[in-house]
Request: fold
Amino acid sequence: MLALRNVSSGQQRWLAASMGKQIDERTARFSGQAQVGGVTFTYQMDVSVHGDVPAAGFNTGWSVDKDLEGWEVCLAWHDRFANDWRCQLYPFAGNSEAANVSPMRYCGVPAALMYRPDLSMAVLFGIDASFDYLNPTTWTGKTTFHFKNRIAAPQFRIGGGKLSSKIKYSYPLQLLFSDAGDSVKAITSLMETWIKVSGYRVDDSLQVCTPDEALRIFLEGRRKTKMWIPGVGYELQQDQGFVYMSHQALSACLQYRLYELTGDALWRNRSFEQMDFILKAQNTDRKDPHFGVFHTTYNIRPRTFDSGDRGGNVGYKVDMNAETVRYMLLTWQRLKEREGIDRKDWYEAAVRAADWIVKQQNPDGGLPQLIFAKTGQKSNSVVSSRALVAMPVVARITGDDRYLKLAEAMEQFVRKNVEGRYWFTGAHPDLPPNDFEQDSIWGVVEYWLDKHDRTGQNECLDRAVGDAYLAFLWWCPKQLSWVRNPTQCAHSEQQNWNMYVVYDYASRKVQSLSRLAEKTGNPLFARLAERVIQLNFWTLVKDGPYMGAFLTGVADPWLEQKHGFNFTENAYMDAYNTDLMLQLVDMGLVRAKNP
Reply:
């Protein structure tokens, strides 16, 4: 369980204890010394087991009588393999047979999720979250995590090749077990054990403003912003020069709801302008195999549509089209029910796109993230959480069961290839299909909650809880000591942009957390929902030219973006703020009257 490793040669010396004694009924202490290059290395490990949950703690301390160069300490829970294992360290490793995260800058609960491919055993192996783990301004930041299946046991490597005689080192680790036998039950039991062992509490001291006050700021900024393009929609991001078409239907749905709340015709007019402009982004050539698809991007200069989505991942985006269809139909339905106006052109355009989506299904039941327009080649299937949630909604509004059957096939893909491997990918349309991210988890949670509403099946609720716990594993568990901005419940956006963010990304995670609290009676989910709301309000731009927008980040604890620990990045006038505000409206948390 304890080794010294030479960072140059890779030589590893496992150390045995020369003394052992029982401290109490649950704790034993092992200690010893070793000579390394004329330096005395003294070590001690307290091993404790918890009486009522399957968990153990290892608090290891060591010291050197002289500075020891070229060696680091390795802490593991075993040194040999009897089974195959897989590793997950979000966002650096997922369903991986090897991991080498150096320096360790894990962004959620500081633990590796280790599991056998058959899920007969799953383990959470990590640093005690009460410790000032991975602080880059201290020696604890000189930590690496290393694992290679059948070759190198999962281990934390500490010290960075220099151990100082001036430091009395201590590193507390936790080991939590589950033999539940499947991915959902395993992650649920592991995280419930972690919460109990760690004494986790949601920090409710962050009180930025009330939902009504946030809505007032949002409306005032949105009313006067120069990022509104008449007859088109909202520019997504400051100084980027494009409108994200796939978010315009959600924005239009919100603005119609704002009209209902405030009576201000401005929001109704803008909603209609957005809906009408979406029609122009659709392929209406019946001879084209992609008849019905919506382009996802409108470039302000030049005035052109494409599906580039800011990056090199160019192609028709199936999941983004599903989001457009969902909110187009919801807006059509609400207008018809409230005012008796039937905008058939909106409805028919949405159905054309929904039919195109059905045709894109892969043989494995899932949907590709993109289709290359010129070749028709499809990418591999990804979570496609927007489509997973949207298709039952489309089926309900249209009365066409084909869309529900597609969702059921996608569900089977998610069970086997996503939840069964803790492998959530594909939410970011500007990145390749296999980008490892957490945003799509919340779409899957929403799907299971919706299905639980429809069917009452307890398994659906169990899966919603398990997936939510997986997302929670990827959230920062506390306020990091070296960061001023709030960090608890922040998460890394993605592998390619590793900084802390808090926004919803077409995921409705606040509403899902609230629904989980109501369905399970677990107050943790309600407290997490309130914390995430306040974190989002913290990013709300309160004044100036971008008033009403959301900043994309709250912090950069590992200096990945090289702008300081408290880097927040620029403002988004669409997508992030509209997603949250629509949830608050749907949840009845805002009561705006002619603000």
Observations:
- Residues 113 and 124 are 5 Å apart (CA to CA).
- The two ends are 63 Å apart (CA to CA).
- The chain has 13 helices and 30 strands.
